Amino acid sequence: MSADPRGTHVTQTRAGWLFVSPALGLIGVFFVVPVVVGLLLSFTDFDIYALGDPSVARIVGVRNYAQIVSDREFWGALRNTLTFVLGGGPLSVLASLGAALLVNARLVRFKSVLRVALFSPVVTTLVAVAIVWRYLYHPHYGLIDFALRGLGLPAVDWLGDPHWAMPAIILFSVWKNFGYNMLIFVAGLQNIPEEQYEAARIDGAGGWARFRHITVPGLGPTFLLVGVLTMIGQFQLFAEPYVMTAGGPLRSTVSLILLMYEQGFRWWRLGYAAAIAFILLAIVLVATLVQMRLQRLERR
Amino acid sequence: MSRPARALVVNAAVAAVAIVTLVPLLWMVSASFMPPGAANTMPPPLVPRTPTLEHYVALFTRLNLLRNFLNSLLISGVTTIVSLFINALAGYAFAKLRFAGRDRVFQLLVVGLVVPAQVGMLPLFLMVRGLGLVNTPWGVMIAALASIFGIFMIRQYALGIPDELLDAARVDGASEFQIFRRIVLPLLRPILVTLAAFSFLGTWNDFLWPLIVLSDERKFTLPVALASLVGEHVLDTELMMAGAVVTVVPVLILFLVLQRSYIRGVLMGSVKG
């Protein structure tokens, strides 16, 4: 191979496309095409009959979307999902921040062991630990109600009471996930220069004032990132209700993805399920944009 | 408050948080060694009074969980190795090889990061069905053999490779693939370890897609097998805890071994936004 610039240019172009083509091919065929076809599918009445003979499926325009909007199941699933995102999201971010402040505190010993311990729920298998929590939530034998009774508080039928099932799933999910954002917050905290705290201390600022005026603004970009990532992840709620409650009691924990799964893979209404998926995508995109805009306004 | 007193309070608070966090996992392990019914007594026992291995024996003999364990191992292992190679090739090319259209294609890829995978799952299922891969490990693996996130991470890392090194190899007459194999791959080692950990854990823990593709319990991965087992054995608390241990402990060990690499990945992935 010659060392002249034009020769390497040609080989680099060829090698470049050759190197990216396996990845682009796979992503194109198994991600881009399904997403596009999914959009088309959402405008058809593809169902169990079409599964046997695809030519039976017809284009029905926006009928699936119209049906969804008048479906009480859908609004219930949307409400449950939003409860999970808007209730669990801030709670989980706060738990992560609190844990990060604790782990990062100067007086704390054994920091690296601690970090690993608090992070460990993140790497565990969701289905397996959801089953563990099912038993922890048991109204008679579960450790959680045992602890509540020990503290003189009333026991709660966590997964059997429609008012408590979603909060129970939120609590479980905070436990499962807070370690992830905790690590990101710890990194953000370590990026805030120590001199800022020293200067504030000399000016007589107390702990809360230092937190409010140095730590919180210093973590600004981290909040945006953590907020968006957490939210996108939370809209995909599925395995927790599938394993812990099967959507019950009284459908109080059916999420949008669980509804999509039931419609698409239990009743084989693929057109209808695809429409649910695209409504979810639209909500996720809008929510992401809103969050980015809000954070930008706040920084001004 | 004096400094030692404050240190005591802070460390006690931290210890309490750590214990509360670990209790579910510790109880899972402890209950898995209790005889049938022992976990459902009052007050709830924290440690087994008469430890027994019978639930593990039942899982691996009567309930054939070993097969599901091997399915998970195969699917996670193959996905990790193949996707690592494909993502490394692409990530390196996007970072270091100059070709027309490179940056535009990469930007398009990054847009795909915000689209949840579930959005394409229904047509993907129809495709997998059309290819005759329903109820096979290939059907589970096929969509995970390349990942935008993986390409992104490798590109970020590969940007730090000095061009002079690559150009020198070119002058010596090395082909682009030789450069990739002999120079680039060794330099990418740290990020490859990180991604391997991410990929293996992610595939091992994945639930929705294998649940859709696999229909025969002999083909199930561990999480799918566990979710189906809890349907029949919901009253067998101790047995289910043993099943959870078998599923969780391999990934916990892998994480403990590779924790540095894994945590670096969490932080790298978070820089990009």
TrEMBL record, chain A:
GO BP: transmembrane transport
Membrane-crossing residue ranges in chain numbering: 16-41, 82-104, 116-136, 164-187, 219-239, 270-290
A Pfam family this chain is assigned to: BPD_transp_1
Domain ABC transmembrane type-1: 78-291
Topology relative to the membrane: Multi-pass membrane protein
InterPro entries: ABC_transporter_permease, MetI-like, MetI-like_sf
This protein's UniProt keywords: Cell membrane, Membrane, Transmembrane, Transmembrane helix, Transport
Classification via PROSITE patterns: ABC_TM1
Compartments reported by the entry: Cell membrane
Keyword Transmembrane set for record: yes
Gene Ontology CC annotations of this record: plasma membrane
Keyword Cell membrane: yes
CDD domains, alphabetized: TM_PBP2
Family statement drawn from the similarity comment of this UniProt entry: Belongs to the binding-protein-dependent transport system permease family.
Protein name: Sugar ABC transporter permease
Species of the source: Eiseniibacteriota bacterium
